[in-house]
Design goal:
By secondary structure, the protein is of the alpha+beta class. Helix content is 25%, strand content 32%.
């Protein structure tokens, strides 16, 4: 069994290189602190659905693309340990106003704006295979 944090984000197309840089740093930091895998997936052939779709879920605008990212852990306790180390890592301190996507600050951690981006956590009964830990930006 694994524990998964998943993120669905709307990224302005003209900020994708900034997002890639941020994702590569995130991958290094999460993996150094014990995450089992860290994956970033950029939408390629994902139409805006009539009722449901990734773009609709984040209210993506014409000049934005959707990114689905996820991080895997052994279990909830492992996730909490890893995230505590990540949030204490000085490399993860940055000004949310400089982020390539909408963010809000909540205590010492950051979360995507709920009205535009989605954050999901899959519990210990999830069965997700561990990956390579390399960001898969395509």
């Amino acid at each position: 069994m694994s524990y998964v944090d998943g993120f669905l984000l709307a990224i302005p197309k003209d900020k994708m290189s900034d997002y890639r840089e941020m994702a590569e740093l995130g991958c290094r930091v999460w993996m150094e602190h014990g995450a089992l895998s860290y994956v970033e997936s950029v939408a390629d052939d994902v139409p805006y659905g009539e009722l449901t779709s990734f773009p609709r879920a984040v209210m993506a605008k014409e000049d934005e693309t959707v990114v689905f990212a996820f991080i895997t852990y052994r279990d909830r306790a492992h996730r909490d340990q890893v995230n505590a180390k990540v949030m204490a890592d000085p490399r993860m301190r940055f000004d949310p106003a400089q982020s390539p996507f909408d963010m809000v600050v909540s205590r010492r951690s950051w979360k995507a704006r709920p009205e535009r981006n989605a954050v999901a956590t899959l519990g210990e009964d999830s069965d997700w295979p561990a990956g390579t830990g390399r960001p898969a930006l395509r």
